[in-house]
Specification:
Structural class: mainly alpha
Largest sheet: none
Order of helices and strands: HHHHHHHHHHHHHHHHH
Number of strands: 0
Number of domains: 1
Helix content: over 70%
């Protein structure tokens, strides 16, 4: 009872302090809200919407079950999750967070994952997509597309390591049933695909409408969290709380022989990855390697903003948030360590040289690469896509309400 009352008091004081801060810093709050809104409707919404809609339809048509049967011999020994986890893993890496949590929750609701398997899967299927790493962080913040190679390798290698580590999670909670080892079979995969499609007897129009409604509803929630944490991050800075936390972090950075000036960007990155990565790239007192190590941790940790989005999505099922949070800490350290280890053998050897004969071709990652062009195009046409999608959502919602 005492702990419950204490929690109530803490929550009430926190919300009250935030309300007072909004009154004390109205202009800063508005600026932070606009910044979060721009990021959501320019980048997040148009980039995630197609993945969410297609994923919902692939699940409904049984394609995910088809992929799951084929990937079962790979995913089960490596990560101790069903083959359908391979689909969630691939889509999570391609579209970025929190797509992995969305798909894992959906698969759990479909009964294709047990609770423990879902908690394992969600821990390593949420990561940054290549477009954000190369387009926004590498070129946009560091003005150096070549560092994106280190960031991407460290990020995804750390993610893979987390998946291997989390295979040991929940062994005591699982039933002792033995899974039969079988080779990939197209016949069984097609059979599973057909059976899933028959069981989901929704017509195409209904399935598409449900996919659009569910996806946009999730993205509206994501947008709210992005704006909220953008404001919180700004208010914490103006209230001096970020500085207080950063002063305590300076001792740790000094022990690791890192510049203490990285403390404030690091604390900001714990709340919101975009701002933290941008601030880290602007610290002149740190070397490029030190900036990349800190940025790798920030990208892998995902920030409390993304974690709040994931927590809200997982709350729709019985999947616990705690394993995901612990996995983000491990991912942050793994990514930072990999970035430090790979810096000399990859970046210094192949990219930081004036000898063209020793350099790896980097046209794929250059400032004029298709990734950077796609990122610029997304920023330009993203708002139009968002407005059009929201208009469709309103029409579908109105039609649904009229039927009811």
């Amino acid at each position: 009872m005492f702990r419950s009352k204490l929690k109530t008091i803490i929550l009430a004081l926190t919300v009250s302090m935030m309300a007072i801060s909004l009154i004390l810093f109205p202009q800063e709050s508005v600026d932070a809200s606009i910044r979060g809104l721009n990021m959501w409707w320019e980048i997040v919404f148009p980039s995630l919407l197609p993945f969410f809609i297609v994923s919902e339809m692939l699940i409904g048509f049984g394609v995910v079950k088809f992929i799951g049967v084929l990937l079962e011999p790979l995913m089960r020994p490596l990560f101790r999750v069903p083959g359908v986890g391979g689909f969630a893993w691939a889509m999570g890496m391609a579209s970025g967070y929190p797509a992995g949590a969305k798909l894992t929750t959906r698969l759990r609701q479909e009964g294709q994952l047990s609770k423990v398997e879902a908690e394992r899967l969600v821990s390593f299927t949420n990561c940054s997509n290549p477009l954000f790493i190369f387009g926004a962080v590498s070129v946009g913040f560091f003005h150096n597309a070549k560092v994106g190679v280190i960031l991407a390798i460290a990020h995804y290698l750390g993610n893979f390591t987390v998946g291997l580590l989390m295979r040991f999670y929940g062994r005591n909670q699982e039933t002792s049933k033995k899974t039969q080892k079988r080779k990939p079979s197209l016949r069984l995969a097609f059979s599973a695909l057909h059976r899933t499609r028959i069981n989901d007897n929704r017509p195409l129009g209904k399935l598409l409408g449900d996919a659009v409604m569910s996806s946009i509803k999730t993205l509206l929630m994501i947008g709210g969290f992005i704006i909220l944490f953008s404001v919180i991050n700004k208010l914490l800075f103006h209230l001096g709380i970020t500085g207080i936390l950063a002063s305590g972090l300076e001792y740790l950075l000094s022990a690791l022989h890192l510049p203490t000036e990285l403390s404030i960007p690091f604390i900001s990155g714990l709340f919101e990855i975009t701002l933290g990565s941008q601030m880290t790239s602007q610290i002149q007192q740190a070397t490029l390697m030190e900036q990349i190590v800190i940025t790798s941790f920030i990208l892998a940790f995902s920030g409390f903003s993304v974690q709040a989005q994931v927590a809200s999505i997982l709350a729709q099922s019985d999947i616990s948030f705690k394993p995901f949070f612990i996995a983000r800490i491990f991912h942050g350290f793994f990514a930072a360590i990999y970035a430090a280890i790979l810096w000399n053998p990859i970046y210094e050897r192949f990219y930081n040289t004036e000898q063209p004969s020793n350099a790896i071709p980097v046209s794929f990652f250059s400032e004029e690469s298709w990734l950077q062009k796609m990122y610029k195009l997304l920023v330009e046409v993203g708002p139009l896509i968002t407005i059009f999608a929201l208009a469709c959502y309103v029409l579908l919602l109105a039609k649904q309400m009229a039927k009811n």
